[in-house]
């Protein structure tokens, strides 16, 4: 049974997802024969299950890219996932390789299943769009007695996208993106007001078997980040490095390797300048209802500390998603997400500490509306 993908944005505060590529891909995705499809993001996640879109869901689903899909079609789909990531940025670049090879990697799925959408505050998001290519999203979050939020506008014109976000601290973030200046190349320029040192230029190039990425700060003494990935549809290897031109010091270096099959994925990441080793595994047991389990193990090489988190995801019905997780700290988390009307979602999260029985449970709610 094939799904009919629908595209909708669910943005949180400081979301940096490039929605322009979702618009580019919408017609292509609508023609794609697929059993299930997931489009990943750290700040925005789009999940297709049956005839319903679950925003922020975490079921590892797989697109079936047939021979009619050109390289550019696949590249546009990859860029629809091109979300800003910090610690897991090397895994995104590894994911690009496997997408262009026609296989969905699930590097992010484990992190997504275990951590994404577990919210213990109060969040509200309202999104709307117009036929002229203008998208508007308002997001608000209440944390204890404090309220923070932002308003984001995005306008797409030909190959250029302008994204402007104004937050509750009166800071204005602007990103200008130009797609396909050269084949396979995406260029973006970002800056924040009033921070005059925040400007940066980002270049992303994706080919069938490798990807390159560079980020350069637009200051007199810029920070420079470089990343590269090579691989096939099953095996990918990548590394990234950051360099401070002022102190001539290496600010970060990470490397990773991943192996992927149709029903499972495993990855190993060396991060924090070689001080942290992370291993993750995700397994799809039932493609029909998306029953999935995931585990992540972290080892600190200097202190020899170990951490682990295990979790599961299961679709109760076409409108309800249930997730659970447990960590070595003794905390148990539960999440339930329900589409109470088309394109509108309510998510409830709860967490209980088994080691501190007297401590109250943490409960949060998030509501997403799109008329």
UniProtKB/TrEMBL annotation:
Gene3D superfamilies to which the protein is assigned, alphabetical: Porin (2.40.160.10)
Cellular compartment(s): Membrane
InterPro entries given in the database record: Porin_dom_sf, Porin_Euk, Porin_Euk/Tom40
GO cellular component: mitochondrial outer membrane; pore complex
GO MF annotation list: porin activity; voltage-gated monoatomic anion channel activity
Keyword set, alphabetical order: Ion transport, Membrane, Porin, Transmembrane, Transmembrane beta strand, Transport
Primary location recorded for the protein, binned into one broad class: membrane
Pfam families: Porin_3
Signal peptide: none
Domain of life: Eukaryota
PANTHER family in alphabetical order: MITOCHONDRIAL OUTER MEMBRANE PROTEIN PORIN 4, VOLTAGE-DEPENDENT ANION-SELECTIVE CHANNEL
Family statement: Belongs to the eukaryotic mitochondrial porin (TC 1.B.8.1) family.
Name of the protein this chain belongs to: Mitochondrial outer membrane protein porin 4
Organism from which the protein derives: Zea mays (Maize)
